[in-house]
Amino acid sequence: MSTAVTPTRDPLRAQLHQMWNGVAPAWAAHLGYVDSRGRHVSDRMLELTRPRPGERVLELACGTGGPGLDAAPLVEPGGQVVVSDFAAEMVAVAADRAHAAGLANVAGKVIDLEQIDEPGASFDVVLCREGLMLVPDPERGAREIRRVLRPGGRVAITVWGPRELNPWLGVVFDAVSEQLGAPMPPPGTPHPFSLSDAGRLAAILHGAGLDRVQIGELSVPYRAASVDEWWERTAALAGPLAARLAALPPEAARALRQRAAQRIGAYRTPTGLEIPGVCLVATGVSPEAAAR
């Protein structure tokens, strides 16, 4: 695994790097859930980009391993997949998983989505599941994606849809905001709903020079056996929240948990929690392909 990445002196970006490295162990501990919930999204991304034998695929913001690992068999023989994230601890987990699965054509690399350390026009497919929304400058990230795409290259990007359509996380943000008397997420910080407006997302991709941009919705419900399971999981995996929740005094933490549990209880079913979730799936191609 390559760990070369340009250090940042920007306080916000340094904070984000530290935050996501810090939650990597929790993501590794909840791999089963992360994989099961993300499978439907990954399948749709691969269906839309159609990786083929011999092609090169780059996954950005891979976390502990997403659609890039699923793409690896599709580009055999002769193809290669690079799974990358700016959090080295996340890349290490993804690379280890590829090795354990016998995916010899997968390489792990620490890459900042806003400054992709790869030559221009070097990938046929770029995949980014729930990552572009979490960078300070998504316009810059989109331009970088366009830069590394070969003529005819395809990209699939997913982000979370509107907050009101994702109560599995929106409820937590609302409860934290009320408990602390401050907005959550904090203003100026990239967060899961940063790109939830389909019009803005499309404008960013068009502005980066991508053609044939399309945005669709995909249902991604959140299922949990109990309220406790939902809370523990969400609090552990949500990067912008995990450290703040862990730092709360015990009494405040209990009050917050009770407040959130009361609200999420509206989604109880006989078999557990069934909470709505919606993501946006964006696709585009290099303009050279559109001109043919």
Features:
10 strands, 292 residues, 2 domains, seven-stranded mixed beta sheet, three-stranded antiparallel beta sheet, globular, alpha/beta, Rossmann fold
Short description, anyone?
With 292 residues, the chain is α/β, with parallel strands linked by helices.
Notes on the structure:
There is one protein chain. By secondary structure, this protein is an alpha/beta fold. It has helices spanning 11-29, 31-49, 67-71, 88-100, 138-148, 167-180, 198-207, 227-237, 239-246, 250-264, 287-291, and strands spanning 56-60, 80-85, 106-110, 123-129, 149-160, 211-219, 222-224, 268-269, 272-275, 278-285. Helix 1 runs parallel beside helix 4. The chain is globular, with a radius of gyration of 19 Å. The model has no long low-confidence stretch (mean pLDDT 91).
